[in-house]
What we know:
By secondary structure, the chain is an alpha/beta fold. It is 36% helix and 25% strand.
Amino acid sequence: xxxxxxxxxxxxxxxxxxxxxxxxxxxxxxxxxxxxxxxxxxxxxxxxxxxxxxxxxxxxxxxxxxxxxxxxxxxxxxxxxxxxxxxxxxxxxxxxxxxxxxxxxxxxxxxxxxxxxxxxxxxxxxxxxxxxxxxxxxxxxxxxxxxxxxxxxxxxxxxxxxxxxxxxxxxxxxxxxxxxxxxxxxxxxxxxxxxxxxxxxxxxxxxxxxxxxxxxxxxxxxxxxxxxxxxxxxxxxxxxxxxxxxxxxxxxxxxxxxxxxxxxxxxxxxxxxxxxxxxxxxxxxxxxxxxxxxxxxxxxxxxxxx
Length: 306
């Protein structure tokens, strides 16, 4: 059985007291055409839903019972249509944005803030992802865009480089290297390191930098995120290679830490925006993607620590 939702709406309106003339005029259908449509609905249900009392139509007992379900059905349908309308409207839709936690404190809010001032009704569903080298690519249908430090190997994922973020060597205040502004990693070869767990890209890249400097880092603590790493450094439990807190920092103290510039080549990580080419972005997500790319092209991206 396939019922026309228009006929259900006409039945609902007549059942609620509207005349056939009023409903037919509003629906731009002839009165005989409307009457035939209501008669077909009776046949599909298997019993009359309306009966004529004088010049008006009133519900039968079956009509009263049927209308309760019609009301619920049409209410759910209208809610669904409204939700889809909101979803596809670029000014009221939802953007599902994933990012690494180390980017969620400055890059993500720095991009969303100016965008929301122009498009205040767009909603963001923020997800956090690890920077795992072997982690999932941003092709997950639940994610529209991903701001990531790992360039996807999947060729169905478009990845646009946004910026290069310097890496720093975080040491405790009072450490033997704390008065330096810039060092080579070889000078820290005998130190104990705090790092992210494998298979983090930052962990892999940090180990590569140390190997290029001629030593294997002595990792004594593994952390789940960068703030935890910095907390362990502040407690004097080791040193760590971390993303820059301030791009202009040169031996800058941040409380119990000092962030030192690293002289070794490649002491940086690239940040990019990824999205799947297999699915079409909804208008609100496309609007935000264009905003991010324009910010990159015009060199107006947020900077760490600012």
